[in-house]
Structures are given as C-alpha cells and as structure tokens.
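Q: Can I see a sequence and its folded structure?
A: Here is a first one.
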Amino acid sequence: GTLQMRSMGGAGVAMRSVSTVNLLNPAAYSAAPQKTFLFNFGLEGQNYYNSQKVAGESKSTAYNTFNFHDIAFQMPLAKKLGLGFSLTPYSSVGYRTKYYHEYDPNNPVAGNVGLIQYNYQGEGDVTEVKLGVGWEVVKNLSVGIAVQYYWGDIDRTFVMTPQAITGDGNFSSTVGTDNYSISSFKGQLGVQWNAIIDRKRLLTVGATYDFGGDLNPTVTKSIYVGDLYNTTIKGDTTHLALALPRQLSVGAYYMTSKWTLGLDYVYQNWTGGNKATEMTGVSGPDKSAYEVAYTNTSMVKVGVEYTPNYYDVRRFMKRWAYRAGFRYGTYNQTYDGNKIGEYAVTLGVGVPVKFLGSSTIDVGVEYGRRGYNLSERLGLVRQQYFKFAVGFTLFAGQENGEYWFMRPKYE
C-alpha cells in the first residue's frame, strides 16, 4: 500500500478515500470524485541487520538500501466509475557471502587440492504494475477488477576458487551464473460495501481475490572455468516451476471525524502451485541439513489513525494525522516443517499541505523481525530491520481550485 496504509500496519483492503490511492483493492477506485485527479509518490530507505550462529560461531552483517516505493494515481472515468494505476516493488534479492571449505585430508578431492573458497552473490528485483477500474454498482456497493503485470531479472552467481596446500599449484576457478527473467500477467477482483454510513461514522468491509498462477520465469544457467578463455562447461535455458499464490484478503475500516481503525486478514495459498521440496545445509558431524518446502501463510494487520481536529485554524499540528500499526504473519517456506514467524511495528504522521486540503506529505517508520523464533535452534539467519519512508500525495479538485481535466468555458 501507500505510506498512509503502511504506517497503519499495512491494513487497507476496506479503505475508501478520495485522498489516498488504495493499492490493495481496485473496488476503491470508484471513490474518485468527478473532475479530480489523485497522484501518489513514495520513497523508502531500509536498514537491515542479520545475525547467525554457525558451528558455535556468531556472524553478523548490516546493510542499507534506498529506492522509490510506489508511483500511483487515481482518476474518475465517469460518475461512480474510477480508474487506478500503480507501480510498486514486489520482491527483491540482494546478498553476498563467502564460505571456506575446511581442509580434510581424508577427502579424495579436498585432500589433494586444499582450501576451497566459495563466493555467492545475487541481486535483482521483481516489480508489479497494476491497472484497474472500480464501479459503484448500487449505492454503497462497489466492485473492481485489475490486471497485474510482473517483470524483472534476478542474477545469482557462485565462484569456487581452490588453493594449493603446498608449492605453486594453480587451479582454475569454476563460475556458475543463473539468470531468472520474469514477465507474467495476473488478475485481481475486489469488492467493498459501506455497512454503516452517516455524518458521524463510516464502516466499510472489503475483500480481494488474487488469481495467482504460474510465474514461469525463464532461467538461463551456465557453468564455465575461469581460465584465459572462460571455457563454458555447461549452458542451458529452462523454465522454473514457480507459481504466485492465490490470495484472499478480507478487512474492515471504521472512520469518525477523529479516529480511523483498520483490520485485515490475508491468506496465501503457496502450496497450490508449488509442490517441490529441497534439502539444504551441510551434512556430516555437527552439521545439519533441512528440508525446505513451501507452506500456506496467514497474516493479520491492524492499524489506527488519530487526527485531533482537522478543522483547527490556529494550531497546525492538531490537523496532522498520527498513525500506528502492527502486523504478524508467517514466512512462505518451512524448514523441516518449522514455520518462520515475522512481525512489524509501524508509526507515521500525515501533514496537510494546506488548510482543509487533501494534498499531504507523509512520513513513516517501521521496525520488524524475521526468523527470531527458529534461528537459534536451527542455525538460520535472524533478521531485524528499520524502514524510513516519505510519501507525497497531490490532489487536484474543487478543494484547491485545480481542475486538470476540465475544459474551460471561457478562454
């Protein structure tokens, strides 16, 4: 979602607003008033701290990223019919790690070669583009449909460099590269219903269904010897059997003049199209190998927003919107049947650009943890992160005297 929703724990399936683009539910596009235009842009910086305990030794690393988070707009097509567009990151890959194979004189290969250094690294991302329409079919009931397009490239590389035990023996490095190229269309349906609506309060319930299905990335694999000629040993192109999950989201949104409460539940069916399992880890004495498998996930998101007095003329900060939220869920893979938990706490504030205006500058922070419940027992990575984001919402309409798409009557 946009920063307003992310600062409330990510809740927003049932949110309807003329001043916030709802990236989660296309049915909300029908809330766009006629002769208006709503644009949203967000930036996000992230700090990650990862730690792991391997063979009794503690290891850690930290890194930072900074990038745009979302570009979105919402506009009316006709009365009670709206269009929405968004460009958002869906997932990302970024790692670099080294591993030294221990010298073992009993190993027929390592005993003759010596120490072997492995370098692994990967980078890339997948982006989601969504275009949808929302229509208020009857009073207080809206439906929506959206087309989602996923594209991106992910590169993974490993380099194996042997080192001679004695003498001047030289061994060529072995290099492996994998490229995953993604280009796929999906679909989404949404519905929203205003269960209670009057001058003092608004209660909306909503739901979405994502069709998911085969992502079918093209995978180009190659292995070559890092000699003078980079001799290729193996090269082929296949398709990875990977499917995005079918997703069902339901939520409720309650609003008064001062308070806003949001609650979402999200279920993802990862096992429907992903049946394969894989063994990972290092076998042998004092080592462990785990079976990794996909699992269905659930997540709960809850958020609150408080605006002391939107109509206060004298005290500027009383017109600000103060937000907080929390979410908890599980990761989409298991290790020997153990599920990995993850949670996040969010805070944010929305500052109106002008009195009684809908354009805002939003600031938000988030703290989260992953793998905290299994990392010590299974030797997995334990991750904690901080995110800092800034969002800009520009609204053109009657409230600020800007009609971007209205034909003038007089020149």
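Q: Show me another, different protein.
A: A second, unrelated one:
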Amino acid sequence: EYHSEKEFLDYFVNQESIFEPGTDYEYSNTNYALLGFILQKIYGMEFADILKMKIADPLQLKNTYFSNKVDSSKNEALSYNIQNRFIRNAQVNYANHRSGGGITSTPTEVNKFLTALFNGQIISNESLKLMLPQERGAYGMGILMLNSATDIYEHSGRVENYISDYWYFPNEKLGVVVLTNAINIEIGKVVMEMVGFAYGNKPVIPDFNVIDGMNSADFLKLKGTYSKNDGETITISSNGKNLVFQSSEIGQMFVPFINKGNNVFEYEDVRLTFYPNENKVFFEQNGLQEYYKKM
C-alpha cells in the first residue's frame, strides 16, 4: 500500500539509535529515504522529478526513473524467489522505500551513471572525494572500497529478490554492473566472473547439481524445497561448491553451509541433518529443533 511521508516518519521516529553517531556505520534504507525527503523540500518537487531533472535527462538515460509500482507492460522485470519452481513475489509499493528503492534502470544505464559519477559529470571532484572511503574495506557515503590489491569501489542493494551490484575500477575506468530479479547464489560470484571476462578470461559456469564432498546423485536427493506444518518453507540448492539454504521467513536470503559428512551440514550455530530416504531435514539452532518435509 502507499504510505505518506508522515506515516514513514512516524514509523521509526521513536526508535532508539543502534549506536552513538560517529562511532560506527550501518547501511540504512531509512537514511536514504530521509535524504530523499530533504531533497523534495529543497527543490519543491517529487523525488521522481528530481531524479529525472538532475540525473536521467543530463545523462540521456531513457530507461532510468522512479515509480511506486512495477509495470510489466513497460517490460519491467517482476521479482521471483527460486524454490522448486519460480515463485513470484507480491508487489511492493515503493512509497515504503522512497529514495531508498524504487528506481528502475538497466545495467547499461547504471554503468553510464557510474562513469559519469566517477568522472565529474554529476558532482564536483571535491564532493566525490567526500563520498569515497579513504581505506580499503571501509565505507564512505554510499560507496564501499573493497579490500583488494587494486582500487575497486562497490555498492549492492536488495528489495525483494531484485538484487543489484556494481564494481567500479577507477584506474581502468571499468564498470561492471549486475541486476537480477531471481537468484539463489551470491551475486558477487557473478560479478567476479564478469570482471574476469573483461580481462580476457573465459567465464566458468559452476555445476549447480553438485557440492564439495558429495556426488550429484546423492546431492539431488537433498536438493529441493521443504515445508513444515505452518507453511514456512526452506529451499536447498547449490552454488557449485556449498549447499545453499534459503528460508522463506527471512526473505529468501541464501546461506552457504559446510558439508560435515553423513548428510550433516553446518553454518555458524545452525545444523541441518538430512534423511533422504524419508525426504526430511532436521533443523537445529540455539535449542530450536524442527523437522521439514520435502515438497
């Protein structure tokens, strides 16, 4: 549903801060939405119009704009979760995200935006320096510097199963952008293969029907979607190396588990024990114990 600026502000205004200002950082959609509200007051117009005036029109981005809802008649991608089949997500009204989400674009146009940003076509070099982190592994104003041998700037985002990631190499003036509407592996792995391709390496497509320490026939007995009585589901897949766990309760985030042998897999304090002959998996975490049945 649509929510007004007042409803948005009322939702979080009385919540306590996670830490003292200036002592730490954490990405926050709320802060981006607040910036959008501030822009609307400065310019006296809607965020969508500001985006068009200041970014899309000057850079001639024909497919970059803000809207509250996805319109598939305009060839805008719908969002899906990957279980034992593709399951379409419910529509979200991006008035709930404001300038923290809801921008439609294409990989090519996001890359044009990055090139313009890092080359002084949108903001001044002085302003750009304020945005950029000074140390590897640090976060600046909306931009992360990867902890790598060369300078690489990165930012990723997610709303539903729309996941985006960009890497920008300032020395090479190379931008790599990935946008997806359905994925069950870490998007950074896709970006790394694309970076390798840009440097002349042939992409390596993993075999998603195997995991380390288990052959294809045995893994396929575990792969699939499981459910319990209350309707909650978990999906088991592969990223080509690890068993990947997704839970519908946490928005289908995918977590790689380590194969411990004998159909037991672990990730931090979570343990999965599979019983392939019974089409069951036993979930354990911090005293919580539950069985899921394969669908």
